[in-house]
């Protein structure tokens, strides 16, 4: 642990008096906690004040010095901080996290609620990385807008929802578009929804010639849309997150060069159902394309839409944070009523698909992160 890390005890972690001179920090709800004491009464009170003041702004050395100045033993303070870290109640904020979090008192207050989830398990710097990340959500749907709102609220610095057409009455969903948005342009209404959840987020489309860190496809059959084939060649990581009928589908998460692609799943499906390409070509057509202006696909009740959005949030953040391999790599997570618990279905790369060969040929190419082609922001 370097001195650039600043200990932060989330306000949700209680500092309780267990007995005279003895404190219990956390552990009130089955989670690991720490008991300290018995200490002299003055020391116990000073330690409680010191712990409650761990706001992530001061390095560990400054906190220890502050404790000593308050009459506490240096070794006791250091041991308590180390034990709280070990049991996961204390997280460390890095200087990059601080820079990303402290714009205004209100922004700081909102961030403090989100930091424990982002920085837990010894991941200082995660908040700073999220702040520098960009996500484009393709489709202001009942999954897409709540997902975009949650990504922004979880610290992703730039979130743009792209769509066309206008909002319909059935688009209303908790955390997404509202009844008052009916008739408005979908992109503008979606931006307002994201801003309600995260007032400081950057909502602008990405500049031409740049690509997001992740593109999320939220239309029911976007995965078979030929317009999206360019994602693979441009090496833009992309994630499917949608509801088909009443089944939530999250994944696959495609990282070009590392995983199978959306076509792999289609080829696999065609192996067992030769009629699939003919059906898919009809499914990808918007239902109203021949009868009027485009509207968004309306599918999925509130429960399955929001459960799908939350599941997609965890996969997207896992990819952006780079701290663990998302389970939606080469797989889908499917959510069905009544429990809506995600169930994983593997979709390995298909040997007849050229994506793996193409990836192998591209290995070692400078800048192979895929940010140099196309206009993905609008
Ligand atoms: Zn493939």
From TrEMBL:
A Pfam family hit:
ThiF
Keywords for this entry?
Nucleotidyltransferase, Transferase
InterPro entries in the record: ThiF_NAD_FAD-bd (IPR000594), Ubiquitin-activating_enz (IPR035985)
- One GO molecular function term? nucleotidyltransferase activity
> Which part of the chain is the THIF-type NAD/FAD binding fold domain?
133-309
Against SUPFAM superfamilies, the record matches this protein to: Activating enzymes of the ubiquitin-like proteins
Q: What is this protein called?
A: Molybdopterin or thiamine biosynthesis adenylyltransferase
